[in-house]
Amino acid sequence: MIFLSLDVETSGPSPGQNSLVSIGAAPVVRRGGQWAVNLARTFYVELKPQPGAAEVAEATSIHGLTAEYLLEHGDEPETAMQSFVDFYDGLRARYSRVRSAAWPASFDGPFVGWMCHRYLGLNPLGHSTFDIASYAMGALDCTDRRRLQHVMKVAGYVKPANPDEHHALSDAIAQGETLAWLLNHVEKRRSTD
User: Fold this and answer.
1) What is the C-alpha R_g of the chain?
2) Closest CA to 157 of 134, 139, 130
3) CB of 98 within 8 A of CB of 4?
4) From first to last of its 193 residues, what are the pLDDT tens digits of the chain?
5) Whole-number Å distance between alpha carbons of 101 and 132
6) What is the pLDDT of residue 187?
7) Contact 35, 29 (CB under 8 A)
8) Strand 130-131, strand 43-46: pairing
9) Ordered domains of the chain (ranges, CATH)
10) Number of other residues whose CB lies within 10 A of the CB of residue 175
11) What are residue 29's DSSP bridge partners?
12) d(CA 99, CA 110)
């Protein structure tokens, strides 16, 4: 089994009402007894806006992917989602089980799932996405999400370099590195208990 770190950028907060504008995905795999991001097998796509979808100015100002830019440079939604499903199916063929993961899963997973259903009639992610923040809270015995970064830092976590925040692939890689650290931290702790 592997994890697939997902990140999306959107034109607002709601699948269906707002457009999915980009998807980034980075596999988190075991190599040599350690979890790590496989940078050779990442995925990125930008999508043309969905017809009739609203664009929230605050959302667009975060990632900079305007409707005008995407109309010229983005892939058609059906083509983009088929590319994602092909990528996902390729990972499943290689690794058997692929578990999607995000921080927060409640945002990224529903956008990808909704778009796959809307344009392809299927959702390869299934009904759930692994929530990295919730896993971190459980692994580090932290019940206050506002303190989580501090608790992780005390445990030895160093935030990964992210040269292009709010770019879906760059964010997917960074959160994949965070997940890999958490998985390795838990395994190391279990082996010394």
Assistant:
1) 17
2) 139
3) yes
4) 999 999 999 999 999 999 999 999 999 999 999 999 999 999 999 999 999 999 999 999 999 999 999 999 999 999 999 999 999 999 999 999 999 999 999 999 999 999 999 999 999 999 889 999 999 999 999 999 999 999 999 999 999 999 999 999 999 999 999 999 999 999 998 887 6
5) 6
6) 94
7) yes
8) unpaired
9) 2-192 (3.30.420.10)
10) 25
11) 36
12) 14
For residue 188, the tally of other CB atoms under 10 A from its CB is: 12
List all residues 6 or more positions away from 55 whose beta carbon is below 8 Å from its beta carbon. Answer: 11, 12, 18, 19, 49, 66, 67
Residue type, 153: K
Task: Match 């082996």 to its residue by tokens.
Answer: 191
Largest CA distance in the chain: 56
**For residue 189, what pLDDT is reported?**
86
Locate 31 and state its tokens. Answer: 């190599």
> Which H or E run contains 6?
strand 2-10
Query: How many whole angstroms separate alpha carbon 70 and alpha carbon 51?
Result: 12
11, 26, 91, 97, 115 from 2: Cα distances, Å: 29, 10, 9, 6, 23
List the structure tokens of 13: 């907060």
